[in-house]
């Protein structure tokens, strides 16, 4: 059976996929709360409540993470997540009320179809209603519905991205990841170095290999800042401090660097959150845990690309991995 972030005790995942155009959102819920952290590496992020997760700030535990399409408009979906959690009685006690803490990040998927259609509060609420401990769907769903990779030489030579998930277990402790891959660069198989999806040759029929193309002097197309981005969540059932959880998010970016080239560019808003539910009642050395975080992240990126399916929206055709010649 395929591994997923829901192998982590205390974690649920739900998707909302909009049928009107390729967009949607994904929620990662920790109803019992989890220690939260974040690391933002892209130069053009769209985020919510990331300052709260800095180790020097006082709020330690969160109740959900939102990943959404729709660029900055998609952040509106977090209010629907908050409303749903509030109805479930989940949140931080603040006097007579409970306040659900829901950080989030968005990716840019506006070129596919009607850009006025984007995730909103109702979408976030619906994703929560769909959340469960079951392994979540992958590919063209949720925050990965409108994801596209390999845009560095033009959108017309790009390919379909998506969302994927994986987990790793060592000595009774599990680390999982869910990643929505909308990268500017290519996606690489870290075991073989082969390009799985990304920029295509000018005729559109084959993979180009962006790294080699840039190094031989091919000119990248001008790209709007923030029009790409890989976002995701790493979760573990280990018992960790807020500083340690932040380190999981930081080293999780090593998994992005193994599988995306180039990554963390001026046109990407790459952001990874991390959660520690502590439900295993155990921990491992941080060296092992960060290795697990990077591995789960890399596996989730590859799964996102392999699960994606090609789409045609108007005149735009975006093939998926495996549809091209060698």
Could you explain the architecture of this structure?
By secondary structure, the protein is an alpha+beta fold. It has one domain: L-amino peptidase D-ALA esterase/amidase (4-Layer Sandwich), CATH 3.60.70. Helix content is 20%, strand content 29%. It has five helices and 18 strands. α1 crosses α2 and α4 (242-259) crosses α5. The chain is globular and about 60 Å long. The model has no long low-confidence stretch (mean pLDDT 94).
Give helix % range. 10-25%
Number of domains: 1
Distance between the termini: 30 Å
**Which geometry do the CA atoms define?**
globular
For the residues shown, what is the average pLDDT? 94
Biggest sheet character: 9 strands, mixed
Q: Find the structural class using helix and strand composition.
A: alpha+beta
Number of helices: 5
What is the annotated CATH architecture? 4-Layer Sandwich
Radius of gyration: 18 Å
Number of strands: 18
CATH topology, by name, is: L-amino peptidase D-ALA esterase/amidase
Low-confidence stretches: none
């Amino acid at each position: 059976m395929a591994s997923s972030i829901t192998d982590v005790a205390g974690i649920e995942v739900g998707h909302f996929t909009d049928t009107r155009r390729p967009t949607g959102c994904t929620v990662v819920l920790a109803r019992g709360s989890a220690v939260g952290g974040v690391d933002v590496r892209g130069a053009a992020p769209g985020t919510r409540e990331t300052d709260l997760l800095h180790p020097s700030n006082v709020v330690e535990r969160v109740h959900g993470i939102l990943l959404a399409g729709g660029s900055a408009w998609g952040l509106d979906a977090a209010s629907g997540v908050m409303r749903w959690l509030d109805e479930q009685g989940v949140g931080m006690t603040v006097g007579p009320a409970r306040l659900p803490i829901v950080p989030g990040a968005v990716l840019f998927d506006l070129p596919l179809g009607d850009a006025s259609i984007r995730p909103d509060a109702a979408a976030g609420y619906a994703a929560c209603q769909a959340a469960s401990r079951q392994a979540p769907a992958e590919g063209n769903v949720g925050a990965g519905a409108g994801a596209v990779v390999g845009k560095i030489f033009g959108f017309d030579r790009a390919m379909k991205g998506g969302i994927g998930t994986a987990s790793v277990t060592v000595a009774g402790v599990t680390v999982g990841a869910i990643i929505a891959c909308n990268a500017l660069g290519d996606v690489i198989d870290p075991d073989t170095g082969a390009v799985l999806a990304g920029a295509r040759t000018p005729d559109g029929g084959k993979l180009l290999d962006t790294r080699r193309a840039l190094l031989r002097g091919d000119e990248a197309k001008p790209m709007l800042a923030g029009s790409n981005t890989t976002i995701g969540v790493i979760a573990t059932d280990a018992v960790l401090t807020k500083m340690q959880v932040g380190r999981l998010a930081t080293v999780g970016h090593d998994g992005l660097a193994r599988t995306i080239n180039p990554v963390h560019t001026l046109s990407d808003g790459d952001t990874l959150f991390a959660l520690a539910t502590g439900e295993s009642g155990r921990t491992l050395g941080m060296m092992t845990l960060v290795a697990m975080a990077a591995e789960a992240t890399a596996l989730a990126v590859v799964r996102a690309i392999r699960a994606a399916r090609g789409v045609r929206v108007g005149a735009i055709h975006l093939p998926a991995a495996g549809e091209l010649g060698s």
